[in-house]
Amino acid sequence: MGNLNTRLQTIANGYTNKGLYAGVAWRVEKAGNIIANGTSGTSDEAAKVPLADDAIYRIYSMTKPVVSVMALILMQRGQLRLSDFVMHYIPAFASTQVLCDGGTEAPTRPVTIEDLLTHRSGVSYDFLPDCLVARKYAEIDLLNHTDKNLAEFVDLIASFPLASQPGSQWRYSLSTDVLARVLEVASGQPLDQLLEENIFTPLGMADTDFYVPGDKQARLLPLFGFKTINFSYPILPPHDLTLLDGEAFYPSRPGHNALRGGLGLFSTCADYSKFATMLLTGRAPDGAPLIAPAMYKMMLANRIPESQLPLTIGSIKFPGYGFCLIGRVMQDLGQAMSLTAVGEFGWEGAAGTYFWVDPQNQLVGVLMTQFLATYLPLRDDMRSAVYAMLEDM
Fold first, then answer.
1. DSSP 3-state assignment of 202?
2. Which of 41, 54, 82, 146 matches a 20 to 30 Å C-alpha distance to 114?
């Protein structure tokens, strides 16, 4: 552990000492044992307070795998199916059209639950370049409508046309937000209760929620970064520690009504590691299967045809990766651009949070920082260091 942690500490310090990130935390486990765990930088940059182990982060899109796992749990119970039409749960999608050169056209088939899980629904994101539907979202600042509850937000999404025919393209999107509303309708429970009862409590994730209560507010880290998410920088801007008002678009106070499926959760490095560790086997710490063995195998299979690869978000590509029911999954090491392994899977968040799970090597890694729309290769550097020293563990 010592040599690996020293290496990770050196990499993280290289970023924080240059003022590129205020603080960085990491946790790496192999076969259930912690092999590296540490922090670099501060939780209060002005006062130079060292980053605490129990700091709470806005994890943005690392909310998505949690919501996707909840969908799999409902499938196991017979409350949901991959082939179900979304419009059967959200009637507003029955009239959603598809944008085309001449205006709009009818979808060739309805959007399914599988489409939502694999980001092939035709729904978009307002920050995607070269997407006309994304521009329509941006005109009303759709992503920041925190005044709307989940049902209202998803009905608003359904009022826009789809950017492509269902199943025809992989496009990173608000699909998981739509999925979250489907889960509420299918189960009859609010999203926060669903996740608490079925994932957070069984895994002992006491610091993960859509809210940060008053007695934990001091542990919530400030958010730095760019005011807008942009995946098509022609020239990379300075990576300065510009402080953002996270509360304005990612509220933390108990009682807010802006629950989402694609973002919104708060967590710690240790807490999210519990979720990632569960994903090694699908089982809770007591051995009970959260994800049934047959479902677990199906969960990790790539579902994106070769014609829709590589996965691309703006100018960012994920060569070698396919996409399974909960996130990216490495298929082809001949295309990989940094050290990994076949079958490695996971996802990341817009503020620099990241995790990977590697069943082959029984490896789990979680990386946390708070810089919105970061473009620096911290995650690749940290993960590559782990794989470079894997034989020494």
1. helix
2. 146
* Integer CA distances (angstroms), 54 to 48, 65, 216, 271, in order: 17, 22, 10, 9
Q: Which pLDDT belongs to residue 320?
A: 98
CA 66 to chain CA centroid, nearest Å? 8
At 130 the pLDDT is 87
The length of the chain in residues reads 393
| Percentage of residues in the chain having pLDDT higher than 90 | 92
How far apart are alpha carbons 62 and 262 in whole angstroms? 8
CA–CA distance from 43 to each of 13, 21, 53, 369 (Å)? Answer: 14, 11, 10, 10
The residue assigned the tokens 């994800």 is 291
- Select from 381, 303, 290 the least CA-distant residue to 345: 303
Q: Residue 1 — pLDDT band, cuts 50, 70, 90? A: low
Type of residue at 101: D
Where does the chain have alpha helices with state H? 2-16, 63-76, 113-118, 132-139, 150-158, 175-187, 191-195, 201-203, 246-249, 269-281, 293-299, 378-388
Per-chain mean pLDDT for the chain = 96
Q: Number of helices and strands (H, E) in the chain? A: 12, 17
CA angle 147, 225, 257 (to 5 degrees): 15
Residue 305: partners with Cβ closer than 8 Å, 6 or more residues away: none
Q: How far is CA 347 from CA 65, 124, 320, in A?
A: 7, 18, 14
Map residue 248 onto helix, strand or coil: helix
